[in-house]
Structures are given as C-alpha cells and as structure tokens.
Specification:
By secondary structure, this protein is an alpha+beta fold. It is built from three helices and five strands; from the N terminus they run E-H-H-E-E-E-E-H. It has one domain (about 15-150): Roll (Thiol Ester Dehydrase, Chain A). About 20% of the residues lie in helices and about 30% in strands. The chain has a five-stranded antiparallel sheet, covered by helices on one side. About 20% of the residues are buried.
C-alpha cells in the first residue's frame, strides 16, 4: 500500500497529473551503480516543471506575475533502487489545497511499472519581498477556478 501524503479535501477537484519519461544517466549513479539518493529532488523537479508548464503555473508563469515559489518541505521514500541506464517514469501530481501553496506528489516507476520512489514537495507562494501570500494572486485564483470547474485535464 502506498503512503498517502495529502488528504483529499471534501469537495476538492481531482488532482492534476502528468508523466515524464527518463533514463538514469551515468552521472546520476554512485560507485555501486545505483542512482545516488541526492538525485531524486532533481527528478521531482522534472515532474514539477512539466506539470507547471502544462497547466500555466510554471516557474516562468510565476516569474511574469512577480511570484516566487520556494520549496518549504520535501520528503522522499525509497522503495527500490534505479540503476544506470534504467528507463523510468516520474508521475507528478498536484493536489488541491485551500491554502496558497502547491502540494506536489511524485511517483517514480521502473520499466516494469514497479514503484521505486515516492515523495512530495510543498511550495509557498511569495511576493518579490519574500512575504508569504495569504490570498491567491488573481492569475492563481483564475487557475484554481478553472481547476475546480473541471476545465483542466
């Protein structure tokens, strides 16, 4: 059974998802030939970037709106190692939150479809002076309304 990182809030829309395909590169493995544990945050980043670009809330979209979104929390659970040249997928899942934050979950699977790694990140939305936003900025509120209306797939 997979660990539930974020509770599905009652009345919340379904999470948004996307998948990235990758191959473990030589520079990403350690002397044992397995992907070094410190590489997984960059795999999460690959998923976060694609998901953000797909739904119009990517880093450049935030930048244009003068919003920054630093990582507040990150967690990784390792189930089985990836090795050099292993193909794998990164599923990025954005979970709904009533707070002004981005709750991403990640599921990495090997070519056999087995889960190798799971984890999550939480990003806060902040203004250029690093003040945490308590109210969604207009562009993000519009995104949330479209999500809640089922317009995003």
């Amino acid at each position: 059974m997979r660990k539930q990182y974020f509770k599905q809030e009652e009345g919340a829309p379904e999470p948004l998802r996307c998948t990235v395909e990758r191959v473990a590169r030589f520079e990403e493995v350690d002397a044992l030939g397995i992907v070094w544990h410190g590489r997984y945050p960059s795999y999460f980043e690959d998923g976060r970037v694609l998901l953000g670009e797909k739904y119009g809330i990517g880093y450049l979209d935030l930048y244009r709106q003068e919003i920054i979104a630093p990582i507040k929390q990150m967690h990784v659970d390792y189930q089985r190692p990836l090795q050099f040249s292993d193909p794998f997928t990164i599923e990025a899942i954005l979970h709904w939150s009533d707070a002004v934050r981005l709750n991403h979950e990640f599921i990495l699977r090997n070519a056999a479809g087995e889960i190798t790694t799971t984890g999550y990140t939480v990003q806060l939305l902040m203004d250029p002076e690093h003040n945490v936003l308590m109210v969604p900025p207009p562009f993000y509120q519009e995104f949330r309304e479209r999500w809640q209306a089922g317009e995003l797939t």
